[in-house]
Amino acid sequence: MLEKSLVDSIKTIDSLTQAQQLALGKFIDKGFPTSKWEEWKYASLKHLNERNWKWSPETLSVNIPKPAWKHSVIIKTLNGNTHSEGTLPQGIALLPVSEFMAQNPTFESVWKVRNPILDQNSLYDLNEALASNYAILWVKKGVKIAEPLLHHYLVSGQQDTAVQSKIFIYLEEDSEITWFEQQRSESSHAILSNYVQEIWVSKNAHLTLIKDQDLQQSITHVDHTFIFQQESSLVDAFTFSINAAYLRNNLHFYIDGPQVVSNLNGLYVPGEDQLMDTHSVVDHRMPHSESNELYKGVLMGNATGVFNGKIFVRPDAQKTNAFQSCKNVLASDRATMNTKPQLEIWADDVKCSHGTTTGQLSDEALFYMRSRGISKATAQTLLLLAFVQQVIDKLEHAEIRAELSEKIVNKIQASLGLTLL
Amino acid sequence: MLSVKNLHARIGEKEILKGINLEVHAGEVHAIMGPNGSGKSTLASVLAGRSDYEVSEGSVEFFGKDLLDLSPEARAAEGLFLAFQYPVEIPGVSITNFMKSAINEIRTYRGQDPMDAVQFLKMFKEKMAYVNIDQSLLSRALNEGFSGGEKKRNEIFQMAVLEPKLAILDETDSGLDIDALRIVAEGVNKLKTPQNATILVTHYQRLLDYIIPDFVHVLYKGKIVKSGNKDLALELEERGYDWIISALD
Q1: Measured between beta carbons, which residues in chain A are less than 8 angstroms from residue B160?
Q2: What is the pLDDT of residues A368-407, one digit of tens each?
Q3: For A383, phi and psi rounded to 5 degrees?
Q4: In terms of CA atoms, which chain B residue is nearest residue A387?
């Protein structure tokens, strides 16, 4: 439960619509998640109920070096405000969602009946209440952009600033983009970064979604990404969780048409005092679709990792192929990993499999390498890098791959005090 | 170069080596034979430094140094090499990267400068040609998806690159067809010099048709119970181990 003073402070926020007030009411009733909530068992945020939150973060402006790509546009979401710098490619627009809905009344009716699984996700309610004026990236029919669009997400502020950010990505039929999102912070103070991303992928559209989560040790970051896929669409999602005190990913896929392919790739490398929790949902609602999940984790120091992977195959979703794999290496005897695959299958003609492993580096492999003259530290480094590389190598864009690879390698080496010759 | 004296080793409570004595000099080939469970592979593992085994008694000197005091990587840097009976598959680590790390760490241990990429690749390709191994191996992950024969050939290739003073081949012939066996044996013979030595650990005599040993030792219940020249291996092939064992038991 929220402290009374906190309830009072949040109620002073004025000019909320009826829908926002409804969402706010839900949040106030529930408060921040505690370990008593099944979905937040290992990732309690109970202590946030007692903080004196500042609900209106300051306005930010930052300069970010432009990427060397052809469309060197940067879309920035700074403390919840989204705008673009540079010229967006032809056929792509960034505008307030209200404006978009006014222009597309038929879409609004479709959007309203979307049906995500929210459980007791009070942080989603909080975001809905306070992140009202969010932006939409609108990719028009048939528009295909090979070069990635860079999205720079940033939170900053004083102690106990609560930032609500939201962005909506709408891919029309036959369109194709790569969305490369750098999630960052600029503050050594405790900040709550509560981010919702909703994505609509129309028929035959193709989205590559890459999240590079590298925030400071003072940040509690919750990322809710809900992806709705229509017939014959393809989504390749990548989540690289590199740094933050607390990092929670709720990544949900709703498969609403046949011949859909959803690929979920994730890599988390928490170190000392870090918690990283992935809750994925793949909801197969229509037949003849396919989902593939590959998650890997390296847990160092006294890190805590959580993976909960839900796969639903609804009665109509015959001929579904759903695969899930989650492999973890405990690179420290103080680290813990909690895994829970959860498959609920109502259809009978499906292929589903899942597997989770958590262990240490193989003694046999380490001895083999050492017997060739490779020191134990180098052998460990080589094995860990090979382990994470499997996820990184799936990135098609060479520069992004190189950038992320270097960052992750550095993080692992620094956390374990290992270096390669 | 190698002097093993009264070596005892155990795994948990079980004593496997019960007093091994063995002297190996430069230029020699020793074959260690014996029935299953006699301790042959344990001896190879203990010499290479596998931590599963505890040495409870005895000593091993390698060029005058206390081998048992060294880490597995230091033993390799001192010139010891173990060709594994079951080479380990290491997905994601290429053979090139693996051997480059090995070479450069050994060079650092010996106070030499690391090899640069060009030098390394040149040497690497020469060795491949020398032991007759396909260059497509270079880019593959270490032993991943290799056939039994490819794994063993890869061991011999690593041996060619590292140029050990003492190579211990643990059941290198197991699981090999006759062609693969011949290629592996040719590799070992080519790498033989008057300065290095080889210990062949094997159950069967057939490898010894290709690599002629100077000495043959029979290991039984953790001890060397009989030593001889290459004729002993032929006799074992003909008569089995029973005649030695029954004379003891």
Answers
A1: none
A2: 999 999 999 899 999 999 999 999 999 999 999 999 999 9
A3: -70, -40
A4: B92
